[in-house]
Amino acid sequence: MHRLMNGVGTVHQSSESWMNAPVQSNGATPRSKHVQDEFACDVFSERLMQQRLPKEVFRRLMQTIQCGDPLPHEVADVVASSMKEWAVEQGATHYTHWFQPLTGSTAEKHDSFLTPDGHGGVISEFTGGMLVQGEPDASSFPSGGLRATFEARGYTAWDPTSPVFLIHGPNHVTLCIPTAFVSWNGEALDKKTPLLRSMDAVSASALRVLKLFGTDEGVSRVYATVGAEQEYFLIDRELYYDRPDLVMCDRTLLGALPPKGQQLEDHYFGAIPPRALAFMAECERELYRLGVPVKTRHNEVAPGQFEIAPYFETANLACDHQMIVMETLRRVGPRYGLRAILHEKPFAGINGSGKHLNWSLSTNTGVNLLDPREETHTNMQFLVFLCAVIWAVDTYAELLRASVAAAGNDHRLGANEAPPAIISIFLGDMLMDIIEQLESGQPKKTMKGGKLDLGARSLPQIPRHTGDRNRTSPFAFTGNKFEFRAVGSSAAVSWPTTVLNTIVAEALDEIGARLEKAMGKNPTPAKREQAVRDVLQTIVIDHRRVIFNGDGYDQAWHTEAEQRGLPNLKDSVSAFAAISSKKHVELFKKHKVLTKPELDSRSTIFFEKYCKQLMIEGETMVSLARTRILPAAWRHQTELVDALAASESMDIENPELRSEVEKVIGLVRNTQARVVALEAALHAGHGSPEKHAIQIRDKVRPAMEAVREVVDELEQHVADDHWPLPKYQEMLIIK
Ligand code: ADP
Ligand code: MG
């Protein structure tokens, strides 16, 4: 049975899915048994469903899960009752429809299983109707103009492709049902609905291409697969609560660099500090229980920065699990006196955090369509899928850029540590070589990596990849998948995944149509090959400009990219503006992913969110400066003046002290003036969300940078015992 839906996407590596891994009764070490016992025990998994549901009901449900067939009422009733029984056995008293509104986090409204029985008592009830549909009030979630406040009705609809799970909290266990969230008239108010639609779209287009190669035998669906690596910072919780900027904005608005930042790069992959490791282990255990297949943990580049990465899964599941990963990091932190910070740039001058979105396409029979295999130049089907991605990324570079735009990510993209805001593709030497052969019409060979001799007899010869890694690229081919590295660490991955699926759906559709035309009816193998070569040759010629294997951090690339005509949307505000262009409206409409109003509402929400976030940051900065920084600086200034007066009263010349007094007075006055300017900029904004966002970008952000500049200098002059905020050096060193 195909397992992709319900577990990790490594279908070709293991016939058992992660969530359905059986508990081995013999041969397992106590440790592995311990881990397996805890595996996915908070998930109503496919294995549990198979055990607990009547055979026919299970079959119908799987048909819904795998083929998207609607679920009949009577079947839903049986599934619901079995689900409830299981949940209650585990201690659940409530259930919730869990969804992803456009706020960026998840939402839930809890209902008890108990219902009055009409005779003064209660019965515990959970019907198919309650499972399949909920009706939360939609008026308080952002709709970007789709709904007026009085048009409150919204529906949540069960997404059977993402298993239900339990959340345990102090004094409660709740059954969580992943759902899509739509308005009364069916418009998507969430991130899941368009994602699911985009998965249908990319599946249909991919099947069209597979058919041309005759490789669609037994394939009923093509899944987008996603593995999202999450970077985050850990800081001591007490210090966190002492920094109103972290509490309000999840990033420090002020703070001078410590003498030891990341210059030594000794943190990367270094030994994980014990408290952080204990925290990670507990997060992982909770995630296993929820069926989230986390795999990798390590220190990241910056001090106090870490990464957690899962195995990949079908995109829908991976996106839900990504939300759970972020929630878990936040939830578990306090138990270890820690706070997980998911912001893209919590500390200026120190590496920011991203979320690498690994993406590929896989058939339901377990074939990874982006696997180049051994003799790549003969693997025409792979080359078609590869060229489809190249076509898509070049044609929709602005949309892809916009899909990762957010106020937080503006501190990161293009800031010499993260990929530039220019979208380009890294392919590596082997594929580049084949692309060049395709361009000349006839691919003839595949470059080999060879062996790497380590020069010591005791060390093994290791196979070498045909190309090096390139971490400066925003969109890199990494062996058998693409890695979209421009995604921000706090982002939900569903929106960039939706965009990727949709643009590749369009590319495959376009290429499929060209191939069909070139091949004609019943083509001979030779004709088919020639058609593929011709179509790919044109695509390579037209879209090669998006491929860039060099250093993306280099200033020269910006100039070259401009010459190549690649777009460079430098900040979020310009990127948001590109979202609802005519070209993008047509794209989403054609693939039935988003209607024009749905797309427009998203860009409005992005602008609104940007404004809100930056207004909060600006106000917090003013308040910090007025109520903490300046009072501390004034006290320090008084002490300095007193000290100077004391020495002068004793007729002692102290020119150094005098110049320090003058320096500090200068900095303080400068701070006062810049805070006043920031306040003025904060109050000057108005107009549409887009206009306001532009004003914030052009006026508020520079005013904030100006305040920060002078306060950070002040920090290095004011006596440590007066400084009112924990400093970078205290926060960044967790032990
Ligand atoms: P990195 O070198 O970027 O740290 P890793 O191998 O640690 O790479 O992580 C890569 C991520 O890509 C993992 O989450 C992995 O599960 C995911 N991945 C691997 N294969 C695929 C695929 N076919 N589709 C989507 N994601 C994949
Ligand atoms: Mg990576």
Question: What are the main properties of this structure?
Answer:
13% strand; 735 residues; 6-stranded mixed β-sheet; binds adenosine-5'-diphosphate; alpha+beta; 9-stranded mixed β-sheet; binds magnesium ion; 22 helices
Describe it.
- With 735 residues, the chain is of the alpha+beta class.
- It is 46% helix and 13% strand.
- It is built from 22 helices and 19 strands.
- It starts with 29 loop residues before the first helix and ends with a helix.
- Adenosine-5'-diphosphate (ADP) is lined by residues 9, 225-227, 229, 296, 309-312, 356, 358-360, 368, 480-481, 483.
Which spans of ≥5 residues are poorly predicted at pLDDT below 50? 1-37
Distance between the termini: 47 Å
- The pLDDT mean sits at 87
Structural class: alpha+beta
Short description:
The chain is α+β, with helices and mostly antiparallel strands and 735 residues long. Bound molecules: adenosine-5'-diphosphate and magnesium ion (MG).
Helix and strand topology:
Blueprint lengths: L29 H9 L7 H7 L2 H13 L5 H17 L4 E5 L11 E3 L1 E3 L5 E3 L3 H5 E2 L19 E5 L6 E5 L2 E12 L8 H22 L8 E15 H5 L2 H6 L24 H16 L4 E6 L5 E6 L2 E2 H18 L5 E4 L13 E9 L16 H16 L1 H6 L22 E2 L2 H11 L11 E2 L9 E2 L11 E3 L4 E3 L9 H26 L5 H19 L11 H10 L7 H8 L2 H9 L5 H54 L5 H30 L4 H27 L12 H4 L4
Parallel strand pairs: 1-8, 15-18
Antiparallel strand pairs: 1-2, 3-4, 5-6, 6-8, 7-8, 9-11, 9-12, 9-13, 9-14, 10-11, 14-19, 16-17, 18-19
